[in-house]
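Dear colleagues,

For the upcoming journal club I promised to circulate an example of a predicted protein-ligand complex. I picked one with flavin-adenine dinucleotide because it came up in last month's discussion. The inputs are reproduced below in full, followed by the predicted structure.
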Amino acid sequence: MAVPQHVDYIIIGAGIHGLSSAWHLAQRLTDRGEKVEGRIVILDKAGIAAGATGIACGVVRNNYFQPAMRRLMAHSVSVWESDPEAFSYHPVGYMQISCEAMHGDIAQIYEEQQAIGYESTFIEGAKDSEKYMKGLFDDWQAQGITSVLHEKRGGFANNTTAMYGVAKKAEDLGVRIITGIEVTGFVRESGSESVKAVETNQGNISCQHVIVAPGPWARDFWNMLELPNQVSIKGADGQMHTDVDMWRFWQLEEGVLQVDPSMLMTNDGKLPPVLHVDTDAPLLSDEDGSLITEDLWGIYYKPDWHFNGIQGGAAPYKVDTPVNEVQIDPYGPSSPEFVSSTEFAHMWVSALAHCHKRFHGMMDKYHPEASGGIGCFTPDSFPVFDHFYNNVSVIADSNHGYKMLGVGQLIADEVLGEKQELLEPFRFGRYAKGELHPTSNSPFPWS
Ligand SMILES: Cc1cc2nc3c(=O)[nH]c(=O)nc-3n(C[C@H](O)[C@H](O)[C@H](O)COP(=O)(O)OP(=O)(O)OC[C@H]3O[C@@H](n4cnc5c(N)ncnc54)[C@H](O)[C@@H]3O)c2cc1C
């Protein structure tokens, strides 16, 4: 089928945000009795879930120190729960298992979860935390744990399968997904700020509105849109910090222990919640007992039949290549530069053994295949969801986004003229105004 010369809505990127935006926009138009066919296209230079979405661990949680993130996540969890089968979603819950340095932050998260009606249990104190964990896993042995937040909602979805489910919902409503087409720029209306067409390697497509959902390619689309590469940020001290880079990249470290996933069932034979452990107990090598770190460290993991083993990750590291020189393509495991390191494998498997006796002596089961990938982060590591010029909406999720299935719904509502309160704390203007999100004591840049 030929590439169209005009459509009303162009959505760039067939990752979670592009697909969800298209699905919800199509649903809204259908609900209004309008036709969809021929009006909405998704353009992707590769394919469905070819970016960060297709390599994500797929964890869906609420555990965030920032109230605005928590409210947004609660909304997205409801979208995941709306059709678990289509989204290959496993509502097993999520546990944040922490050391004393994080106790106060997590207690606050728990209180605020109660206030918004998000079901969770909070266990405090070393003894009770250990008892709770041993009640789930009789070989639990992590050290230094003084609190456990057990979120009863959330869980994980199988990354690509879930996206085929979202794509089907969009296509069933008349959305067309065109893959293998690369967006190269935007054509502005003369005498107005609006974008009148999207330039591609297969010709220009004129449109009324563009939604850009670029994941790690946020830097490149920001440049194409001629938005500022550097920003001024008003700090908590009231001081203006000028010339701060708008983007930075972090390498997400993830991998798989190739064992039977059912090795990590609970004592009563059930699928466990997704487990996230942060502790400052010394981490020793499970291979030779040498010290890996005495600093705060963290891991997350789950049994996963899609990855065929125990899948998870650890804290990411900052990419120190100058931001404009970072080679995003080829992306993910195909990257010659940005894949999980051997240090990660050693640390992560040792950390699994630190937590559960059952993982002792399993270093050789680590799957040596390339994994992980980079994420493109904003100055405060939280998303920018905003509208620019007269007709361009940008979903720059700062790598929080697999869990954010509901953001596409909120953006679709805004494209149709209904401002969404849940998105307000994520506008670009927050940097200049100093309306920043609170920061936590977590070792992860995304909590
Ligand atoms: C290893 C890893 C693990 C993660 N785990 C989790 C997790 O467990 N939970 C969680 O919530 N988040 C997780 N994330 C973050 C999450 O995956 C991303 O935030 C989210 O998938 C981004 O979705 P997106 O739709 O914005 O972008 P993407 O999924 O990256 O989609 C962008 C699309 O744009 C296309 N594209 C790029 N340039 C062009 C162009 N010029 N023209 C046309 N198309 C173009 C790409 O081909 C791609 O398909 C993880 C990220 C990584 C890297």
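Two points we might discuss: The two ends are 44 Å apart (CA to CA). The chain has nine helices and 24 strands.

See you all on Thursday,
B. R.
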